[in-house]
Amino acid sequence: MDMDGRQEEGIISAHYGVAVDVRFTKDRARVAMVRVKRNSGHVVGDRVIVQKGLLQRLERKSELLRMDARGGVHVVAANLDVVCIVIACEPLPPPGFVDRAVVAARASQLRPLLIVNKADLGCFTTYSADLEAVYGGAVDIFAVSAITGENLQMIKDFFSRGHRGVFVGPTGVGKSSILNALVPDIALVTAEISASKKRGRNTTTVSTLHHLPEGGELVDSPGFNDFGLVEVSAADLALFFPGFEEAIEHPCRFRDCSHRSEPGCSVVEAVASGTISPERYQAYLQIRTERDSLILEPKYREKRNRRKK
User: Fold this and answer.
1) pTM of the predicted model as reported, rounded to 2 decimal places
2) Does 202 score more than 70 pLDDT?
3) Contact at 8 Å (CB) between 142 and 169?
């Protein structure tokens, strides 16, 4: 690795909790495992300097954050430019998952994509049409099947332009199956969803970075159902909320408008005119209420202040 003490730059391509794989920049075929502390803060996608078995993390260009149900903040991956939100009609994503993921991506200056898997299932047609009606004008949507290969070339073509993205989504939606189809040599472990509960089983336990044969890179991450927003202001929530794009182009009368009942609110006016559906507006209000309640909790304030130090 670096037995003579020289410094070598690389990128973390897998994280095992107490060790990481580093793929070296000058020789992409060479990978070394380096031990790290369990809470070292390193994540897949980090650029690092390796010297004498130690890692020095270089400055991140971007990072995707999420909060779990217990208030813990996680860096999903680093140095990305795309977030691929993978969902399916079976199992369905938790309510609000897609909206939170889109907002989190945009807040981190990353481009969100919606990848709807399992086009081979009978429930797909209606589900895909509903998603197109809600998100079609806000984010790019790829309707695919990891089983039949339908439209997977669209993903290959997109990433061949040099993008680096991460797959995020609930367990059982087929993230690893899609990646297996895109990169057959990696053979990630997959599992069927529970027939009784219509929920997935989490077969991906390690985040891994993979180079696509036609260009670009993808991070496969363990599935999770909680995508709480981290350090997203009230103004940014409205600015980045999918479906509000047209309304936000017209400033509200008040700069600190909460988009609830203030006069001259462009969002409320858009709801009244039908530009924003009542369902989309209620989805926004629910996330806004959750956000406002969260920041009043002492535990959250303590964690936020600790993170800023």
Assistant:
1) 0.88
2) no
3) no
